[in-house]
C-alpha cells in the first residue's frame, strides 16, 4: 500500500548548464518517470543559504508523493536522482546542485522514537559536525526550517509530526517571523 511521502527539494549551484529552476523542474520530471504517484509540488522559493555563509542562496520547493516501497528504497532513488544532476556529497550542508531530502513517510518514526527524539534535540553545534548513519524519519530538523515548512504547507498542510503532534501549518506558524520572511516565493 502506498504511503504519503514528503520531500524537500533544493539547489544552490547550477547543475552543468542548467539554471536552478530548470534543475528542480527536471528533477521533478525524473521523479515522475520513476513511478511516483500523485506528485504534488509547491511553488519555488528563494531562501538564504543555511547555515549562513555556506554558499549562494537556494531555490527550494516541496513535493508530496505516494510511494509503495520501503523508506530505504525511496531514499536510494532520491540519491540516484541527485547523482544524475551532479550532486557530490563532499561537505555537510555545503553547496548542492540538487538536494532531495526525505522529510516524512506517512506517520513512520525511524529507526525508533528514542533515536528520532535524540537527533531532533541535538544542539546546533553538534548538528554541523554529526550526520546520522541511518535514515531518521521524520527528518529531525523539519520543525526548525522555514525553507522546508513554508513550501510544505502548500502540499501537505495537514501532515502531523508523529512525535510532536503538530501539523505542518502549526510548526510553520511557530517559527520566528524573520525566518518566515526569508522564504520568498518566485
From TrEMBL:
It comes from the Bacteria. Pathway: Cofactor biosynthesis; tetrahydrofolate biosynthesis; 2-amino-4-hydroxy-6-hydroxymethyl-7,8-dihydropteridine diphosphate from 7,8-dihydroneopterin triphosphate: step 4/4. Its EC number is 2.7.6.3. One of its GO terms (molecular function) is kinase activity. The keyword Hydrolase does not apply. GO terms for biological process: folic acid biosynthetic process; tetrahydrofolate biosynthetic process. It is an enzyme of class 2 (transferase). Residues 7-157 form the 7,8-dihydro-6-hydroxymethylpterin-pyrophosphokinase domain. Gene3D superfamilies: 7,8-Dihydro-6-hydroxymethylpterin-pyrophosphokinase HPPK. Keywords: ATP-binding, Folate biosynthesis, Kinase, Nucleotide-binding, Transferase. It holds the Pfam family HPPK. Catalyzes the transfer of pyrophosphate from adenosine triphosphate (ATP) to 6-hydroxymethyl-7,8-dihydropterin, an enzymatic step in folate biosynthesis pathway. Belongs to the HPPK family. PANTHER family: 2-AMINO-4-HYDROXY-6-HYDROXYMETHYLDIHYDROPTERIDINE PYROPHOSPHOKINASE. This is 2-amino-4-hydroxy-6-hydroxymethyldihydropteridine pyrophosphokinase. It comes from Roseovarius bejariae.
